[in-house]
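Hi U.,

Before I forget, here's the chain from the pilot set. I'm dumping it here mostly so it's searchable later in email.
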Amino acid sequence: MAAPDAIATEQRTTPVELFWDLVFVFAITQVSTLLYHDLTWAGFGRAMLVLALVWWAWSAFVWATNAHDPDDPPVRAVLFVAIILTFLVALAVPRAFGDEATVFVVAYAGVRFLHLGLYVDASRRGRASLAAIAGFSVTVAVGMALLIVGSLLDDPWRALLWTVAVAIDYAGPAWLTRERLRGIQQVAVSHFAERYSLFIIICLGESIVGIGVGATGRKLDAELIAGVALALLVTIGLWWTYFDHVASEAEEHLAAHEEPVLAAADAYSYLHLLLVAGIIVFAVGAKGAVAHVADPLSEGARLALCGGVAAYLAGHWAFGVRLGAPLTLAKPIAAAACLVVFAVAGGLPAWATAGMVAGVLAILVVYETVNTRVPAAHR
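Structure:
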């Protein structure tokens, strides 16, 4: 492993990385739109498969730039080329399971191989382990080959091969090369935690955009105002549970961890996908709730609204546990309460369903705030 240097200890997010993130704002919007127009289990599966690919590409570059100085001209050049390819991936998302499947996967494979190139360069500079990179590059290559072959086939074979490709790609660092992963690089903890926090912000922004799109063109009567306000309160609750204290505490726990690379991979690269998926699914449900604020939500939209929040809370709980947070039941109970709301709110107007979920999050926020900020003697 390379010795720690200024990059590893002091690195923070740079403007070029924020610029790189912008293309993923569009990609996330495309994924949520894909799900919104097909709120079925099959549509959910396709949207989550695309999300898993988009997330893994973004996360891979976080690791590579964590081992680099992103302001180096060669690194910038790679990021700019990756931006173009990622934008093509995002453009192809609506027809990724149709006539633009090959464009989608070829552009995506280009992004992934650029990531490997950055990592090889980092190893040449003594900031990453070439043995670890060589280990999971095999699973990347196999995964990309399966994606390309699948793009040439029709469903269900395409979906099946793409699912296998994602499983192999994810299994590379998680299982097949986990021992090598321990020494892949010196983790710049502040940079790492900050990058993933920013992606949570991107996803929360998508929920706000979804609420706005659902309300656009409608008269601002009392029901619409209530629906918008309650949906935004849910978004605020999601933000609060992550950024009030958990994000900073997670960074501290990661910095003190005996195996920061493995802890970062598990807690951020893998478990954060559940948080991201939960927010995006909720955004789809919130968009439908605001668009049909006075009517009962369809079962799919109601499950997206309630189940998305439940998935986010479950992922949030697992994230904290992996980094050594106290093992409490507040978030699992709140997640279960959201599923209860789904079960009982079938005949209620959409604004009432959003209000019940907002109430669950409000109770959770108050409980956690009291237990983290108020001294035990004053509770």
